[in-house]
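Exercise 7 asks you to align residues with tokens for two separate proteins.
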Amino acid sequence: MRIRFLALLVVISMTACRIGKQGPPREFPVLNQVTSVNVVGHDGSKPSVKVTDRQKVSQIVAFIDSHRTGWIKPWYGIPVPTVTAEMFDGTEFKGSFGVGNDFFETQRAGSFFSQRASSGEVRHFLDLLGVDEEGTRYFKEDHLTGADYLALRPDGSYTLKDREHVGLFAAESGRWNSSGTVLTFEPDKPGKVPYRGEEVAYRGHSFISWQNEENPTVAISVEDIKKHLDANAESLPSYVFFQIDATAYQQETEQTYPFHTISSR
């Protein structure tokens, strides 16, 4: 009995020491000027997306600034995030903010810290970044009586789904890669040639403008898409792939597509 009691005292003492080493929660200052955000995977791979649109960057920074308090160094170590946002002011690194299943992680003041996060908080931040838990990005093209959905995975694979009123169909799959803002797609289907598109960030939206005839939809120039958004940034033009969040992708690809009524005006 005495041995068990002594063992319990040792465990309590070690736990107290570990908690003591954790230190008080940290609070960080606001990020201030951030011009771009790189979104990277858990292995520190090349960015799956670079966010430069001012509106999107400001939304991401606002979320991070709203979580400035409560950061700790757990005695068991800092958990590794699945997706990380790296903030830059030009070429100056301002810090990072990562996300895991139920936690946030940050690199500030020359060190790493973490804090618990709800599933709603995690989902909201990933939606701001435009990725899911694995770093996959999603785009949607509305063509009035249906829609196409493009999923770009960080492992270099992609899928294209066609959603019509009668159901959802797998339209295409293959490999993709990026060079700057240019995306290249190589379909798995024999005989189908590769095609390219330019990813453009404009007025709070990210869209793909296709560069050759082999693409999945009508080729519309960047200038024409921008003119449409200048006229009404909330009304997205048809036949253009715009980035959507993972929540919208999951919800919409589980439903058949309702018919649109085309006005005669």
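Second protein for Exercise 7:
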Amino acid sequence: MFNFRYLSRFLLLLLFSLLASLSVAKDNSAYIAITELPKEAQTTLGLIKQGGPFPYAKDGITFGNYESRLPRQRRGYYHEYTVPTPGARNRGIRRIIAGADPLSSGEYYYTDDHYQTFRRIRE
């Protein structure tokens, strides 16, 4: 005998999955305009484009992208830069990640939650 209870649960789950994928596809939060960045991030981006000088010794180091939250690239492709966090005693949680040649690639990502989420910076 056919079990409608399981079929209805399956269809409901399928519907939720479909709706979730549609909302992600239309979500524009994966981007941020330069003008929407905090002023500290705008300053950091300017420093990246001019090649420094950078206030933190770790600025410009390779970003590993180990969690694959950014598009996959060869090791050494991404570099990270600190965006100062007001009130933080250390480097804080904000970063800009630059792809390829940081000075000219135009590929920049902003994270304000220490690499949990990224938004591509629109220039």
